[in-house]
Design brief:
Order of helices and strands: EHEHEHEHEHEH
Distance between the termini: 44 Å
Strand content: 5-15%
CATH architecture: 3-Layer(aba) Sandwich
Strand order of the largest sheet: 3-2-1-4-5-6
Structural class: alpha/beta
CATH superfamily: NAD(P)-binding Rossmann-like Domain
Number of helices: 6
Amino acid sequence: MSEMRFDGKVAVVTGAGGGLGREYALLLAKRGAKVLVNDLGSDGGGRGANTAMAQAVVDEIRAFGGITLANGDSVATTAGADAIVQQALDAWGRIDILINNAGVVRGGNLATLTDDDYEFDMAIASGGTMRVTRAIWPRLLEQDYGRIVNVSSGSVFGMGAGISYPATKAAVIGITRGLAVAALMSGKNIKCNVIMPIAYSRLSRFSRRQ
């Protein structure tokens, strides 16, 4: 079976400064895509900001000859999501692939979970998925092509250290189903899928401390 290639395609990967997001970005770049590496550079709970994480992945990609840019905007706001999409469009004129991977684990167990922490977790994974997709959607319709992969999690079946993270990742599944129907009804060549990986990353390390 021949290797799937992405030559000439432009990809945006959110939360790509480490863990699975980094792996998605590296693989796409190795297979020919131009990649915008987005990461706020926060800890697993979404605190702090540092573009060094995204830049480190960009440096890895450039080391093997890939074409890439770093982005440190937050998916938690409409302005941030719009800026992510606009940077890729300004650089390369189109976006073909979107991987909505960003997520945090700020909320702890039910006894200590605050409204603010719950809403913050929801704002990143499910809210961020919606915002970045909303920003890119008109362009996908216009160019009659798009591939969207939303990253949920095996945690939707339950995890010991949190309520809000499984909730927001379950919402990602619902968003994806809605997008898939919207794509089908548009009659355009747009596909939307969701994956539910399990991995040990900065989110995993942070959640174990909660």
